[in-house]
Amino acid sequence: MRLCVALDLPSGRENLELANRLKAYDIWLKVGFRTYIRDGKEFIKELKRINPNFKIFLDLKLYDIPNTMADASEEIAKLGIDMFNIHASSGSIAMKSVMQRLSKYPDRPLVLSVTALTSFDNDSFKEIYEKDISTKVEQFAKMSFESGLDGVVCSAFESRAIKEITSRNFITLSPAIRPFGEDAGDQKRVATLEIAKNELVDFPVIGRPIYRDKNPAQKVEEILKRL
Ligand code: C5P
Q: Whose CA is nearest to atom 5 of ligand 1?
């Protein structure tokens, strides 16, 4: 398992301070679209200046027509980040176009797809996709695997089933992790590190339990010991 810390603090300055406190660790950092819209490419460069070995996951969740997605993915590849994501519901033609376009980059970033946003409950999900979340997540995962993606964003509780129908090496990245049973906040289906491990999650994504802790570096250290 590789720890991915969500840089979700309200300003660029605070996020950089957090990255500074964590610079001694071999971790991934998740940059979301709020931060990216506000602080842009320069922010990515700043993170790499703090520690060139930080791995960056750019969480922009692309969704558009295939050609536009492939164009955007190529621009992302030029940023020198390590992983980004697109929506599986953009369809297999779009996903294949992205992978095809990135194939000319030997060091291309990993590409994950978003299956179902964890903010959906089953009823609101069905309103759009007309199937239960669990059924659709598996279908999206299979589609993503067959389109050549590297993995999916999913709940920890879906990780094992997804690997069973795709491959053990198909990456699963899961938010809503409360390492030692901390406060869930607005997350619904939270899992501890222990559960994430048992469910074969490759990347637990952790935000508040780290940046709200009075000693984020110590918290990261405790988490890394358990991975
Ligand atoms: O603070 P917390 O650990 O709940 O942060 C989880 C991170 O994962 C946040 O950045 C949130 O936006 C993101 N995320 C999520 N559920 C998804 C996709 C991303 O919680 N389905």
A: 207
User: Taking all residues of the chain, what is their mean pLDDT, rounded to a whole number?
Assistant: 96
List CB contacts of 75: < 8 A, sequence separation 6 or more.
Answer: none
Set out the domains of the chain in order of their start, with CATH numbers.
4-226 (3.20.20.70)
pLDDT higher than 90, residue 188: no
Q: Which among 48, 61, 96, 197 is annotated as catalytic?
A: 61
SS3 call for 112: strand
39-67 b/e (C-beta count within 10 Å ≥ 16 → b): beeebbeebeebbeebbbbbbbbbeeebe
Closest CA to 162 of 176, 150, 179, 180: 150
Prediction pTM value: 0.95
Has 61 been annotated as catalytic?
yes
Residue whose CA is at the smallest distance from ligand 1 atom 12: 32
Token pair recorded at residue 123: 């009823």
Q: Which residue has the tokens 């996020």?
A: 15
Q: What confidence tens digit (pLDDT) does each residue in 27-75 have?
A: 999 999 999 999 999 999 999 999 999 999 999 999 999 999 999 999 9
